[in-house]
Amino acid sequence: MGDSRPRYRGEPISLDLKDADLAGVLLSFSKIGRVNVILDPDVKGSVTVRLHDVPWDQAFDLIARINGYASLREGNVLRVGRPEKLR
């Protein structure tokens, strides 16, 4: 059987955030991962996380998903929005 879990390859990062602006946090991954990030206007909220040595792309994915958003990678651009809008 194949493993269907996502494979994360990003450089490990550590984050310790309390009630941080979700949009700002997701945009900060642009520098970390050297990718472009586009957020749907609906992306709002706050995030509290403590992560240690987690691949940056896994952290990005987890933070988006825990807030009900999905991401779609197109080349070096990550689009973030509600799953139904990204389809």
Give the topology, please.
Elements: E1 12-21, H1 22-33, E2 36-39, E3 46-55, H2 56-66, E4 70-74, E5 77-81, H3 83-86
Parallel strand pairs: 2-5
Antiparallel strand pairs: 1-3, 4-5
Provide a count of the helices: 3
How many β strands by DSSP?
5
Distance between the termini: 27 Å
Question: What value does the Rg take, in angstroms?
Answer: 13 Å
Keywords summarizing the entry:
two-stranded antiparallel ribbon; three-stranded mixed sheet; alpha+beta; 5 strands; 87 residues; globular; Phage tail protein beta-alpha-beta fold; 3 helices; 31% helix
Overview of the structural elements:
- The protein has helices at residues 22-33, 56-66, 83-86, and strands at 12-21, 36-39, 46-55, 70-74, 77-81.
- With 87 residues, it is of the alpha+beta class.
- It has one domain (12-86): 3-Layer(bab) Sandwich (Phage tail protein beta-alpha-beta fold), CATH 3.55.50.
- It has a three-stranded mixed sheet with strand order 2-5-4.
- The protein is globular and about 30 Å long.
- The mean pLDDT is 93.
